[in-house]
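pinned: reference chain
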Amino acid sequence: MIRDALHLIKTHWNDFWEYWTPVVMISIGIIVFILEAFAGMKAEYGRYNKKKSGLSAPIAWLIQECPAFFVPLFLMFYNGIQLFDSSNRINTNMVLLFLFMMHYFNRSFIYTMRIRSKNVVNYMENFLAFIFCFVNGYQIGHYHTKFIRHDLFEWNFLLGVFIFFCGFYINIDSDNRLIRLRKESNGSGYKIPRGGMFEYVSAANYFGECLEWFGFAIASWSLPGLAFAWFTLANTGPRGYHHHLFYKEKFRSEYPKDRKALIPFLI
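pinned: its structure tokens
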């Protein structure tokens, strides 16, 4: 019986990670979007952690984000995938996996050393984020180490990588501005973010991250990439809107009237 079960898992292992996991992620993303956008639910970390109990923000971010770096790294070595094939052609799936890991290296190790936030992350939120990053790291790593593609000059790869780097820059720049703002406030409370994409949206860091992963999805042209991009938008989009409402309520007439929540000039 155990042998049959193991055989069944082995037979459907690829289907599980290449199809069913992305489908489940898209479905959960729809539920999360509805709950956060229309039912007013907020993930309990940062300014929305009413319990004020949990792990300190730097430690929590390190724990929850690092699986998305280490799991693909393990799969790269385990599957023996290389950047160049036997004909010295570039495997563009490896390029994309490097970009994915670059983001999470920054988020796991560089960002966590720089933030000085006194906020805490709820234990359950931290656990769920860890599970998500582990699962997502595996599905992205599995797909991009199983298939070899040579799309270096394909339109979707070039466009997607360009969009990814635009989003990556916006995300880093916005993080830098928020970190400087916290230092300048010296614990005196929230201040109005200014400069960069903050001149256009309240959640510039979230806008940058969404741009990153939709660019990644275009370049990858895969169901796992699409699922991750959608889940990022479904999770950070409503949170960005909640941030927008928070700033407007706190600063009232001082807050820029033309500034949108997440997407410049639109929302």
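why pinned: The CA atoms of residues 52 and 120 lie 7 Å apart. Strands lie at 55-56, 120-121.
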